[in-house]
Amino acid sequence: MKIAVCLNHVPDTASKISVGQDNQSIDTSGVTFVVNPYDEFAVEEALKTKEKVGGDTVVISLGNDNNKESIKKALAMGVDNAVLLKTNEIYDSLSVAKILANEIKTQNAEIVFFGKQSVDYDNGAVGQMCAELLGYNSVSVVVGLEINGNKVRAEREIEGGREIVETELPVVITTQKGLNEPRYASLKGIMAAKKKIIDEKIPENCSNYTETISMKKPPAKQPGRIIGTDATAVPELIRLLKEEVKVI
Amino acid sequence: MSAYRGVDYLDLDSLLSEEEILVRNNIYQFVRQEVIPVIEKHYEEGKFPLHLVPKMAELGIFGITLPEKYGCANMNNVVYGLVMQELERGDSGIRSFTSVQSSLVMYPIYTFGSEKQKEYWLPKLAKGEVIGCFGLTEPDFGSNPAGMLTKAEKTDNGFILNGSKMWITNGSIADIAIIWAKLEGNIRGFIVEKERKGFTAVEMKGKHSLRASVTSELILDNVEIPEENLLPQSMGLKSALMCLNQARYSIAWGVTGAMIECYLSALDYSKSRIQFDKPIAAYQMTQEKLVYMLTEITKSQLLNLQIGRLKDQNKVKHTHISMAKRNNCEKALEIAQIAREILGANGILNEYPVMRHAANLHSVKTYEGTHEMHTLIIGEDITGFQAFT
Ligand SMILES: Cc1cc2nc3c(=O)[nH]c(=O)nc-3n(C[C@H](O)[C@H](O)[C@H](O)COP(=O)(O)OP(=O)(O)OC[C@H]3O[C@@H](n4cnc5c(N)ncnc54)[C@H](O)[C@@H]3O)c2cc1C
Questions:
Q1: Active-site residue list of B
Q2: How far is B60 from chain A (nearest CA, A)?
Q3: For labelling, which of A73, A217, B152, B297 has a CA lying 20 to 30 Å from the CA of B304?
Q4: What pLDDT, on the 0 to 100 scale, is given for residue B1?
């Protein structure tokens, strides 16, 4: 059984993002990059799945040499193999999905994990698109997973509740916080990762389906207002919530 | 997980290998997620967060430099140092636990133990299934351990130990103690399991410092141990001092972590605290404090790194380690106190880590050889005059 996990290298959520000179991309100078937080759940679930059903794990990442930093993290956590689909292009979701789907096919992976979304562009689409391109089943925003033989039983988060879904392999799962607790890379894992090789491939040329016209920052937050500091402020607060912001 | 945040003014990261950076950043994450959220509560209650031990073992940090065949990570001394630095950014108590387990328990078993002792104890200690402590100091013999009163007497099939040890980190939570005692006048190391009859560990209360660490008194009242519990290669006080050398090395790195944490706390605070309509960071006197801290941190980092590299090449002298222990502890305490001042009244609150670090560093400056002892060690080295007595 081959288990694949797709991993993105994204700006740290704590970094201050500013729009670049061209108004079409973010200015990456001084921004630190990390493993996409949702992808950490994907890596952990891939490792747990391997521990249960056996097989081989491979991490696949599309991007430039900097992505190796995140790939190495996954290798240190215990993933067996790695592929970097090396490019300096910035692709939209469908192009990314096509490139990844190609590699997943080459790898012959039957279980594929993605984070539910990448925190850089936040489209939340690549996993599902990949499933469609591959003709795999897919379950998204998964918070519980059991795989028995060919059967997959997944619990997914839906608005205000949980949904239990059953399907079969091959499957694409997109992972949500709560599914597991990602392990720390152990020192032995880090040592072992040193010996693992990142297979670098040049992805086939792909053209984007969408074009970014411009990027802008959200308007600055309005300053807050203090109405009072004790119980006497409550009537005024209720009035404002009713009449001004109309939320109650 | 968020990105690593440290202090690196001179691009010292360029002197570290990729693997060294990876381990450091990993421990950083561990400390942010597991230590920082619980440490103030443990500190206040005077408890060591014992639940972290299996997690630390899983990371592989106990006996980190020892060979893989004993279940250890076989990493270099710079990695060991970086791990200690990151742990002490959480709390000196967490780092102390690890220093004791690694440098004062696993190291002597590895260095002075028989193959049988190594095979039996080291994997268990690496996994954190067994916790150890190190008993050298006595109520009346601190800086001068050579005067110790604890005695071992030979019996037909082993030894009887009598005496008491004080200020023993991990004492009451330890499964085994490495006890230093005089056998026919010679100081030797013994493994004493906590179940041995006549062995008691009493936790010391009332500490204002290192509260998230267990400190105990050990009483040995006619404790019988078998012959095989003697560390056969331990010969004289020198053996105990060799252990301390390892631990002092880890302290030098550890307190640099405490400095980093205090500095970053003060830097952030000074940029956001407004007085007289300006952030306090905009005043020259605050800047002087911050620059002083940053400079001292950078110097400590350089000392640590060079000593670590020398240690990896087997070229380090114990006097080098004394220099780093002495300097870094003093500067760390100073930095913690300056950081506390920058934070004003907030500096005394447990919402910020600085007061806890400052209090901890008082212990760290004293244990493993006081500031004065390290001065005398280096002093003797450069002048040829022994000035202890
Ligand atoms: C929290 C904590 C944990 C500890 N953990 C351990 C442990 O796990 N195992 C262990 O064995 N010990 C441990 N210790 C003990 C520690 O190593 C000793 O406290 C230390 O060696 C100093 O000894 P002392 O406290 O008896 O001070 P003393 O030796 O009495 O010294 C008091 C003062 O006199 C100075 N002084 C002494 N002699 C001279 C001299 N010749 N010239 C100039 N100045 C001198 C000292 O520098 C110091 O300032 C711990 C201590 C603390 C506080």
A1: 368
A2: 5
A3: A73
A4: 65
Contact B231, B117 (CB under 8 A): yes
Contact B146, B106 (CB under 8 A): no
Structure tokens at B342: 């920058």
Q: Which of A40, A31, A30 is nearest to A8 (CA)?
A: A40
Q: How far apart are CA B337 and CA B354, in angstroms?
A: 8
Residues 167-196 of A with CB under 8 A from B: 182-188, 190-191, 194
Enumerate the residues of chain B whose CB falls inside 8 A of the CB of residue A35: 1
**So where are chain A's domains?**
2-201
Q: How many CB contacts within 8 angstroms connect chain A with chain B?
A: 54
CA distance A125 to A104: 16
pTM of the model: 0.88
Q: What is the reported pLDDT for A24?
A: 85
With contact defined as beta carbons under 8 Å apart, do A3 and A113 qualify? yes
Tokens 């200015």 map to which residue?
A: A27
Q: What's the CATH class of domain A2-201?
A: alpha beta
Q: Pocket of ligand 1, candidates B179, B367, B368, B378: which has the most ligand atoms within 8 Å of its Cβ, to mutate?
A: B367
Chain A nearest C-alpha distance from B33 (Å): 11
Structure tokens at B202: 């009493």
Which pLDDT tens digit goes with each residue over B32-61? Answer: 999 999 999 999 999 999 999 999 999 999
Interchain proximity A184–B22, CB inside 8 Å? no
- Pocket, ligand 1, Cβ cutoff 6 A: B 100, 134-137, 142-143, 167-169, 210, 215, 363, 366-368, 370, 372-373, 388
Residue B153 host element (H or E): strand B151-154
Secondary element (H or E) of residue B225: strand B215-226
Q: Please state, in angstroms and rounded to a whole number, the distance separating the CA atoms of residues A8 and A38.
A: 9
Closest CA in chain B for residue A13 = B2
**Residues B43 and B350 sit within 8 Å (Cβ to Cβ):** yes
pLDDT of residue B319: 98
Distance A176 CA to ligand 1 centre (A): 52
Kindly tell me if the per-residue pLDDT of A41 is higher than 90. yes
Tokens coding B338: 């300056």
* Alpha-helix residue ranges (DSSP H) falling in chain A: 37-53, 67-77, 93-107, 126-134, 187-194, 234-239
ipTM reported for the complex, 2 dp: 0.75
